[in-house]
């Protein structure tokens, strides 16, 4: 009896599937539907245009190549120096390589796992100023040497370490987005994730030097404090104006900082310095 019922049920199911596979009619209209594996696939159209993640050692060489291509081409200090369209020198590659090997950088990838954005981060101390000055002296190309000296000048003039009573700062040093992927919020997301990493690692101060006006707008949107600024046209080295090809809208170098909140999950409490010295004259 059980065998008969199973056989009868199987025949009924087969008949139903056969009817469904044909073109069934709805009134006088015939439905043109065929049940195939392709019809049953579900494709999500809301897949994100990019993903962000921490740059790992296998990514380092690709990140450096990306920064030498995209970042060097659009960096305002390079453009304002009149070096737009030139190839990144070896000293620039060394700077990018040193930054990414700190292990604190983030990258953005598209669907093909190609790098479309990068934020290079590093811990900085007052000794960084002398290191940049020494690097500038060893540089064989004079325009790039002046650019590196400008970076050292910004670090020294803002005096963030002294003003906020900290020895080591988490700095968002370099940021670049591929031209075809701009306007999607990638830069803001990379900066925000860098900030979260700095907070979770126990740094007390987050710093970002903005030579790009768009980055400065992002910092203001986060509510971070602008502590120092200089127009490129007013920077003078050895009595000579260095940036003679300043182009809108990237006309100023601005330094932003944010005092990171205490994270109970990972860190022990630390003493907070309430006294902040005024900026230098």
Outline the fold blueprint.
Layout: H1 2-21, E1 25-26, E2 29-30, E3 51-54, H2 60-74, H3 76-80, H4 90-100, E4 106-109, E5 115-124, H5 127-138, H6 142-158, H7 160-163, E6 169-177, H8 186-200, E7 205-210, H9 213-221, E8 225-231, E9 236-237, E10 240-241, E11 252-259
Q: For the largest beta sheet, what order do the strands appear in spatially?
A: 3-4-5-6-7-11-8
- Major sheet characteristics: 7 strands, mixed
Structural class: alpha+beta
Q: What is the gyration radius calculated from CA atoms?
A: 28 Å
Query: Distance N terminus to C terminus?
Result: 100 Å
Secondary structure tally, helices:
9
Range of strand content: 15-25%
Number of strands: 11
Descriptive account of the structure:
This protein is an alpha+beta fold. It is built from nine helices and eleven strands. A hairpin with a 2-residue loop joins strand 9 and strand 10 (240-241). 30% of the residues are buried. The model is unreliable at 23-33 (pLDDT under 50).
